[in-house]
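Hey,
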Amino acid sequence: MVDRRRLLVGSFCSVLTARASAASLPEGADIDQLGRFELVRGRPGVVVGVPHATPDTGTLEMGRTLLERLGAGGVFVTGFWDTKTRQRINVNRPTEQIMGQDSQVLRQWPSDRAVAANARYEALVKEAAQGRLKVFYEIHSNHRPELAESIEVSTLGLSRGDASRLKVAFEAARDQLARDVPRLALHVSPLDTVTYPNYRAASSISKLSERGCAIEGPGRVLANRAWRLAYGGCMADAIKAAQWG
C-alpha cells in the first residue's frame, strides 16, 4: 500500500523545488532572446498553430505535416522552455508555468513577458489568416499516463455531428497505417469526454477563430518520427474527409 504521508510530503517538496527555480528563464530578457516565432502563409482563413514546439514532443513536425496536407497557414514557436527546471512561457496564453514529468502543472502565474509573447502569437495567427480566421488547429502533446493510447481533440464552434464525422474519418485513415504504427483512439468533444471540453482553456486564439480545436497526442508516440508523420497525415486526411475546413 502507498504511504500517503510520504506521497504528500514528496509532492510538497516537488512544488517547493519548482517554486525555488521559477526564475530560471532570464527575467530581463526580451522575448526574442527566449524563443523564436515562424510565420508560414497558406490558404486564407485556415491556420495551424504550434505554440510549444520545443517542450511538446513531436508537435513541430506533426504541425508542419498538417499544414502541408491542408494547404493552411501556420505559426510555429520554438524556445520559451528551460529543460532543467521545466519552466515554460506558455505563449498561447499570457502565463508561465512549471511542469511535472507527466505534464501536470505544478505552478502557473501571469507575467509581463508572457503577455508580450502571447500578443506576438495572436498577431502572427491573424497575419497567417489573412483576414477572417475561419478555422484554427493547435497542436500539443503530453506525457500523461492515462492518455498514452489516445489523441484528444478539444473543440469550439463544432457540433456533435462534426465530431462524429472526424472520428469516423480518423479511424478509417488510422486503419490504413503501417502495421508497426501504434493504433491510437481518438476522443473528440463535444461527442466524447475529454480533459478540456473546449479549447478555450488551452489557447487565447479561441476568442479569434470561428471554429477551432486543440489536438493533443501522446508524447511517447509523437517522439517517434515515423509515427508522428503517420498521425499528422492521418489527422489531415480525417479533417478533409470530415470537411472541417
